[in-house]
Amino acid sequence: MPILLSVQSLNVAYGDLQALWDVSLAINEGEVVALIGSNGAGKTTLLRAIAGLHRPLAGTVTFDGSPIQGLPAYRIVERGIILVPEGRRLFGGLSVLENLELGAYTRRARAKRAGMLQRVYDVLPVLAERKHQRANTLSGGQQQILAIGRAMMGLPRLLMLDEPSLGLAPMIVENIFEIVKMTNEQGVTIFLVEQNANRALELAQRAYILEQGRVVGTGGGMELLGNESVRQAYLGTIPTTDKT
Amino acid sequence: MSLESVMQTLLFGLFVGGIYGIAAMGLALVFGVLKVLNVAHGELLMFGGYISFWVFTTLGIDPFVSLLIGIPALFLTGLILDRVVFRHVVRLAGEEKIKNSLLISFGLTLVLQNLALRVFTADDRTIQVAYTGAGVSLFGVMLPFARLASLIIALVTILVIHFFLRRSYPGKAILATAEDWEAAELAGINIHRVYMMTFALGASLAAIAGTLVTIAYGISPTVGLAWTLKALIVVVLAGTGSILGAFPAGLLLGVVEALSGILVGASYREVIGLVIFLAVLLLRPQGLFGRT
Fold first, then answer.
1. Model pTM score
2. Nearest to A90 by CA among B182, B28, B93, B188
3. Is A219 helix (H, G, I), strand (E, B) or coil?
4. CA A175/CA A172 separation, integer angstroms
5. Residue A32 near residue A222 (C-beta atoms within 8 A)
6. How far is it, in rounded angstroms, from Cα A130 to Cα A145?
7. Cross-chain Cβ contact B187/A77 below 8 Å
8. ipTM > 0.85 for the complex
9. Residue B86's Cα: distance from chain center in Å?
10. What is the three-class DSSP state of B35?
11. Spatial distance between the Cα atoms of A147 and A129, rounded to a whole number of angstroms
12. A237: confidence class by pLDDT, cuts 50, 70, 90
């Protein structure tokens, strides 16, 4: 599989506070890659830096063979990297349909807007049912679905999701993960940041572990799920002592 | 007091309010999208007014028709001001942005005002068109043509802006950027272009307001600050997040000021406006048309 996104020695700081230290990772075309780590590890910062919302101090981000670090965010969207940000960040005063339309703002996506809208409605029928409703009147789960639908309208090649299950009921979370899986099966590469590490590792072929701004581990999703120290640190399981 | 005189007062309130609404709309647009209080908005209005004055005086073109020159001129000025001045403050964070944007727009106010004093001199300028003072009488209420045309232009302008923001794709990009600039950028919107267009649009609205002010009252280099303040009061009345609410709030302020003129005396007109301003801030801080 060819490498789609490659991050090399990325350093990012907020003022004097450095959040990422020499972060390197690679995502292959067609993969689902998860990024796990505790709160404040720098997961969101990494996604935002890739998306162009933070200018890195040093390091490179290469997408499909060309460097993208330092480009403004809308140009990175144009290339096909789309971030579904933490907290969904919908245009709350606009309708579901308007949110979706705005998701296809780039020239590349605008040309295929009508066809893509139909596909999003087919895959996410709840959005078709509520297309004229104001986005901020949707339930939390529906808002997350809209956020993903808006991102799909931009024709992502790499879809990055920041905590898509945050604050949602378990059944809705299941639904969201289904949608992510389905999107991947349609050929979209996924980079997923999740608190719900258990569920993320089940879905991901590979994962990276980020701690205090550094990559401290990597491996296959199932492999990490089975790793005792990973289980203790991120999956909330108490070590079993009854085995003799 | 006769019914006619009350009707007359109400009507004049609407005439004045229409100008308030247009002046405030430009300020609200820039404030709502760039999150910058452009104190120099009144100076842009003043330049718009001078354009119609000079075009009328030198070329004899009707001030309403001269909008066809004033609007593009101020649109261009807005593009340049955004690119040269405001782009450098719009992406600053928090307090730094508030301080710097106020400083540079106050600075711009002084520059533009002194430029106008130098170029246009301090004289008050008025426009006397053939139909100045003419009008029709309807049920004993006087309708001056010039003021009526001003109100119609204000209403048409607002409809156009409303349609543009609510129905067109670039307009929706402006509203989206106003709501959440980061999310807008992540949707692929070039927000610096949105800021530039918005600022130019705000300046164009100032051109229209300036022309209407010149027709109604005349123009001088120092009128700017008073109009910025009036527009600011209207923006706060409407709610600082409500771009489209600025116009109805302007109409309301115009009518209330006019009515207070007959109820408590003309010398308290300005006071009534400020009293409403304070009352709204106390009782409904999100503004009359704002959402919490």
1. 0.92
2. B182
3. strand
4. 5
5. no
6. 12
7. yes
8. yes
9. 19
10. coil
11. 16
12. low
Number of Cβ within 10 Å of residue A165's Cβ equals 23
pLDDT in tens, A3-50: 999 999 999 998 889 999 999 999 999 999 999 998 889 999 999 999
Here the tokens at position A132 are 């004229």
The CA-atom distances, in angstroms, between B190 and each of A71, B3, B195 are: 12, 54, 9
Q: Three-state DSSP class for A32?
A: strand
- Provide the H-helix boundaries in chain B: 3-34, 41-59, 67-81, 87-90, 94-120, 145-167, 169-179, 181-186, 191-216, 224-238, 246-264, 269-283
H or E segment and range at residue A23: strand A17-28
Q: At B115, list the tokens.
A: 């430029």
Q: Report the Cα A115 to chain-centroid distance in Å.
A: 24
Distance between B225 CA and the closest CA of chain A, angstroms: 32
Which chain A residues are within 8 Å of B186, Cβ to Cβ?
A: 51, 53, 73, 77, 82-83, 85, 89
String of b and e for B112-134 (b: at least 16 CB within 10 Å)? Answer: bbeebeeebeeeebebeeeeeee
SS (H, E, C) A163-218: CCCCCCCHHHHHHHHHHHHHHHHCCCEEEEECCCHHHHHHHCCEEEEEECCEEEEE
Q: Which of A53, A78, A109 sits opposite B182 (nearest CB)?
A: A53
Measured between beta carbons, the chain A residues lying within 8 angstroms of B169 are 101
Interface membership of B190 toward A (CB under 8 Å):
yes
Question: Phi/psi class of residue B99: alpha, beta or left (left: φ > 0; alpha: ψ in -120 to 50)?
Answer: alpha
Contact B290, B240 (CB under 8 A): yes
Alpha helices (H) in A80-154, listed in sequence order: 96-103, 107-110, 113-123, 125-129, 140-153
